[in-house]
Design goal:
Elements: E1 8-10, H1 18-31, E2 34-38, H2 44-58, H3 62-69, E3 75-78, E4 81-82, H4 88-91, H5 94-118, E5 143-145, E6 147-149, H6 153-157, E7 161-166, E8 172-178, E9 183-187, E10 191-194, E11 202-206, H7 208-213, E12 223-226, E13 236-243, H8 273-293
Parallel strand pairs: 1-2
Antiparallel strand pairs: 2-11, 3-4, 3-5, 5-13, 6-13, 7-12, 8-11, 8-13, 9-10, 9-12
Protein name: Fe2OG dioxygenase domain-containing protein
Keywords: Iron, Metal-binding, Oxidoreductase
Organism: Rhizopus delemar (strain RA 99-880 / ATCC MYA-4621 / FGSC 9543 / NRRL 43880) (Mucormycosis agent)
Length: 294
């Protein structure tokens, strides 16, 4: 049956009825690989402040941004530390950015605990904390990014697709969106459906590492960013938090009765999270280098 919309999961009852919420989360991850998380624990005022800082940065003079680009103008906080020397707009709010990054981490851990509950992982294998204990704050490649898609759309770019079809590499991604929609998801691996803005919601999706870890039970679904003609006059801002397991975590099949325990086509070799991420990054950069050389 064709999937026509992205499920909404209400986390307000996660503490009182975790099994119900966890099942809704896992059902979404098994089908479309995306869901909206509402009534989470990140205050909307904090999200708005982070977006304001993002806009303040992107509004800086071009010369200043070019200086920053030699480091990386999008990755802001990693492992509770600035990813690179910070421009003043971020440096003055370093404490807030570290706090916000930790709130994202804690929220992502809630989702991983939901995974552990619904997959009924035995206590001797880690129980509901099987996934969460493998995602420490200071030993993984998790990162918060600030993104801007400049106005112009088809008029300037001659193509409504502004970020090509791709999947994410980690366990899960938390995406904060503001004002301008545009994300599309390849539901059922065939048709594209839109991911509309839902006030106060975080859009969550499964990454490649989690699909491998669950041996295909969870779906890391292709998605892209488009600009519709009615949004050509607006900039689009988003904030993804890419959540990765610790580098030394083996991505062998999760010890759950719902997960096939046979290794996939990778043979007998089970990648660690760090090895898998490096493999994905190398493939991406090699493809980009080859494309640019043609």
């Amino acid at each position: 049956m064709a999937i026509e919309s992205i499920p909404i999961v209400d986390f307000s009852n996660f503490k009182t009825n975790p099994e119900k919420v966890a099942q809704e989360v896992v059902d979404a991850c098994k089908s479309i690989g995306f869901f909206y998380m509402i009534n989470h624990d990140i205050p909307q005022s904090d999200i708005e402040k982070a977006f304001a800082l993002s806009k303040e940065y992107f509004d800086l003079p071009t010369e200043e941004k070019h200086w920053i680009l030699k480091y990386n103008d999008k990755e802001i906080i990693k492992n509770n530390k600035p990813f690179a020397p910070l421009p003043s707009v971020f440096d003055k709010e370093k404490e807030f950015l570290c706090y916000f990054s930790k709130k994202c981490h804690a929220t992502a851990l809630q989702i991983l605990i939901a995974f552990g509950i619904a997959l009924e992982i035995p206590e001797e294998n880690g129980g509901k904390e099987f996934f969460s204990k493998s995602h420490s704050y200071d030993k993984s490649a998790s990162v918060l990014r600030f993104l801007k898609y400049p106005r112009g759309g088809e008029a300037a770019y001659k193509d409504h697709v502004r970020a090509g079809a791709h999947s994410d590499y980690g366990s899960i991604t938390l995406l904060f969106q503001k004002d301008v929609p545009g994300l599309e998801v390849q539901a059922s691996r065939t048709e594209w459906i839109s991911a509309p803005l839902i006030p106060g919601a975080i859009l969550v999706n499964v990454g490649d590492a989690m699909e491998l870890w669950t041996n295909g039970l969870f779906k890391s679904t292709i998605h892209r960013v488009t600009f519709l003609p009615e949004h050509n006059h607006l900039d689009r801002y988003s904030m993804p938090f890419f959540f990765h397991p610790d580098d030394n975590v083996p991505l062998t099949p999760v010890p759950s009765r719902f997960v096939n325990q046979t290794l996939s086509s990778t043979g007998d070799h089970a990648y660690t999270s760090g090895e898998y991420l490096r493999r994905k990054l190398d493939a991406t950069y090699n493809y980009a280098a080859k494309k640019n050389s043609n």
